[in-house]
Write a structure and sequence with these properties.
The chain has about 325 residues and is mostly beta strands. Helices cover about 10% and strands about 40% of the residues. The protein has four helices and 19 strands.
Length: about 325
C-alpha cells in the first residue's frame, strides 16, 4: 500500500500548473513540489524550472541547489536518475520517518533565479474514534456504508481528507497469474451532509462535484469541536465465482489530516476540475494554490492513517 500512496503523491505533484494572467510575463522561477507525510520513510522532492510564454532562456540541464531542514537540522538529499517503486526518475529525496509536529524548511534555487523557499509542519493525527462497514439497502440494491466517527479539536483550525480504496484480486484456476486492481472509490454522498453540499448553480443544474483522485476534503467549519460520523457509501458487489475463476474484494480506509497549505492546494485542484462554468466564460478561470515564496508549487505536510485491508462484508440474506 505504501507504493500506492507514493504513486498518488507523485501524481499530485505532477499536476499541470495553471498560471494566472499576472504570471504570463513573469520571469522564470523554480517549481517545487514536496509533500512530507507520516506514512513513508522517503520524502520526495521534485524541483524544476518554469518557462516563460516565449520559452526563451530556459536551461533545463542546470541542477538545482536544494536545502532540506528537519526541525532546524539540515538533512542529506539523495538523487536518483532511474525510476523505482517509490520514486520517479530524476528526483531528489530525503530518508527518515516523520512524525506529528515536525517542521520542514525547504529552499531550492537555480543560477540566475531567486531562491524559492517555504515551510510546513506535519499536523496532528486524524482524530479517529472508530470505524465500521455496514451493509444496507440502497436506492438500486445493496450498498456498503462506511461509518467513520471522529472528534474535532475546537482549539485548532483543522483540515481533513478521506479516501476509500478497493482491492480486487482475480484468481484463475490453472497456470495463469492472478490479476490485482487497486483503485480509489467514487463514493455516494447523498447521506453525507458534510461533503454533499450542492448550492447555487450546482443545485439548480444538479452538477455533481468530483474529487481529485477520490480524496474527499473538508475543514472543521461545520464541526467546531464536535464529534461526527461520516457515512459515505458504495455499491455492494460480492465478487464473481465459478469453476474457472474467483474474485476476492477488500477495502482500505485512508484518513488524512492536512496542513493548511496542502489542503488549499488540493482544494484548488478540485475547484479547477469542477469549474465547468469557467470553461464557457461564465465564471472566473481559477489557478492552483502555491505557498512557494519566489517560486511555484507546494510544500505541504500530511498525517496519514490507514486501516489494514478489510474483507468484503458477507450478505447474510444470501
Amino acid at each position: 500500500m505504501k507504493l500506492y500512496i507514493a504513486s498518488l503523491l507523485i501524481t499530485l505533484s505532477s499536476c499541470t500548473y495553471e498560471f494566472s494572467i499576472d504570471d504570463i510575463e513573469a520571469k522564470r522561477k523554480p517549481v517545487v513540489f514536496c509533500m512530507p507525510n507520516t506514512l513513508s520513510d522517503t520524502t520526495l522532492i521534485q524541483v524544476s524550472q518554469s518557462t516563460t510564454v516565449n520559452n526563451k532562456g530556459t536551461n533545463t540541464s542546470d541542477k538545482p541547489d536544494i536545502t532540506f531542514k528537519l526541525n532546524g537540522v539540515e538533512k542529506e538529499i539523495k538523487y536518483t536518475d532511474k525510476a523505482t517503486d517509490l520514486l520517479p526518475a530524476n528526483s531528489y529525496y530525503v530518508l527518515g520517518k516523520l512524525k506529528e509536529g515536525d517542521k520542514i524548511d525547504l529552499e531550492a534555487s537555480y543560477p540566475d533565479m531567486p531562491t524559492a523557499k517555504s515551510s510546513t509542519v506535519i499536523p496532528q493525527a486524524f482524530p479517529l474514534d472508530k470505524w465500521e462497514m455496514v451493509l444496507e439497502n440502497g436506492s438500486y440494491g445493496r450498498e456498503i456504508q462506511f461509518r467513520i466517527s471522529f472528534t474535532d479539536n475546537a482549539e485548532t483550525k483543522d483540515y481533513y481528507g478521506m479516501r476509500i480504496v478497493r482491492n480486487t484480486v482475480t484468481h484463475y484456476y490453472g497456470e495463469v497469474d492472478d490479476e490485482e486492481v487497486i483503485k480509489g472509490i467514487d463514493l455516494k454522498l447523498d447521506k453525507e451532509p458534510l461533503l454533499f453540499n450542492k448550492v447555487g448553480f450546482d443545485e439548480i443544474f444538479d452538477i455533481t462535484k468530483t474529487y481529485y483522485r477520490d480524496i474527499y476534503l473538508w475543514d472543521d467549519t461545520m464541526l467546531n469541536g464536535k464529534s461526527y460520523t461520516l457515512q459515505p457509501s458504495t455499491y455492494y458487489y460480492e465478487g464473481y465465482n465459478d469453476d474457472e475463476m474467483i474474485e476476492t474484494i477488500k477495502f482500505k480506509i485512508c484518513l488524512y489530516r492536512f496542513s493548511e497549505e496542502m489542503y488549499q492546494y488540493l482544494k484548488s485542484v478540485n475547484d479547477i476540475n469542477n469549474n465547468e462554468l469557467g470553461e464557457y466564460g461564465l465564471a472566473p478561470i481559477r489557478s492552483h494554490y502555491t505557498n512557494i515564496e519566489n517560486g511555484i508549487g507546494l510544500l505541504g505536510g500530511c498525517n496519514i492513517y490507514e486501516t489494514d485491508w478489510i474483507d468484503n462484508p458477507k450478505d447474510k440474506r444470501n
